[in-house]
């Protein structure tokens, strides 16, 4: 919804920026000045047609397990913390609200409008005292608020009313209305409920957006095969007489930046699936080991499930394997980790002539280079530093036989390089695969963002949205006490 509003405003010639005060995600991105932010905010910046900035996501939490996260403040990692520690000591509201509000004010000074995304629900009353991303931010900055309900999950009216009733009176004063998302069917059947909701709360619904099939954008988190399939729908069938290329992606623990494989799925004739059993790798032409925030943990997971042996057999048979970032590191000979897992020295899978040592300082970079005769660019986010002792250089990583490894996220979005890599993979796999010469990943992503903008323009009350942006929440909104009506 945030991305769609940003694209709609940008098309009106309004200089708009996205903002999310606090994001929890393992999918992140590196800005041109070397700051790490949530990948969702980078996607929203693309929707707004502006350069991503740390100002757009001042606090990023990167989970390292069920109870711990790395805290990234204004694009730089500042420490590892438990949930209790984050919401207790360092995460005291006054410690983080000030830089968050300063970042928002800077964006407001340099843009005509800023669209702020919340997180989870504004009615998480157990976290309200430390909240800096939902109503805590809205009250601190005086922002009008719309609550979005996902009707595809069911219970949308109860959710919208209950959310309103659980908010404090000062918070309710900023809640100006509702948006309903992912509706299937005739909207006229929903209108009586929307009118009843307006009478109960005194707040209008500013739009009902229909469910859209084949809509794929960069996700914050959550493994969704439909995301890959959605992007692929925009592409044509494989060239006549060409084989289909099958790609298996291993869903390793704490998987990060799985969006790397979206560009593969966008290629006509490439089928991408997530596989976690050795037998599912047997018919794959390429296996991808993606990034992870827990390299040593992922290594243990591969061994426990028999996937380590399956990868070794592939390498021995000359069948392609690609490791990206943490996936590249665990394909090496040895890992020395006193930072992420603190496991000390751990033997890797030994498929690449690489030794990795984890440093406390995180590498954040936007590299460019050449591989397979084509230009490529990407971004790096890692604590592990690789020492390569052999093989063939490959995007600052290496290749040994049919096993490839690189720290570069996003490199497969470079169209010429992606096609050259797929041709090499197809040759190694014995496939007659021919990449389509006109598949441009950036253009496909732009089409998806335009579709989001179209949804807002066609199905939301854009005049009401502009009034909220220009004038804020209207005065005199009624207070709904808990338990009403």
UniProtKB/TrEMBL annotation:
It comes from the Bacteria. HAMAP family: CobQ. The active site is at residues 325, 409. Keywords: Cobalamin biosynthesis, Glutamine amidotransferase. The keyword Isomerase does not apply. Residues 1-220 form the CobQ/CobB/MinD/ParA nucleotide binding domain. Catalyzes amidations at positions B, D, E, and G on adenosylcobyrinic A,C-diamide. NH(2) groups are provided by glutamine, and one molecule of ATP is hydrogenolyzed for each amidation. NCBIfam families: cobQ (TIGR00313), PRK00784.1 (NF001989). InterPro entries: Class_I_gatase-like (IPR029062), CobQ/CobB/MinD/ParA_Nub-bd_dom (IPR002586), CobQ_GATase1 (IPR033949), CobQ_synth (IPR004459), GATase_3 (IPR011698), P-loop_NTPase (IPR027417). This is Cobyric acid synthase. Residues 246-415 form the CobB/CobQ-like glutamine amidotransferase domain. The keyword Cell membrane does not apply. Pathway: Cofactor biosynthesis; adenosylcobalamin biosynthesis.
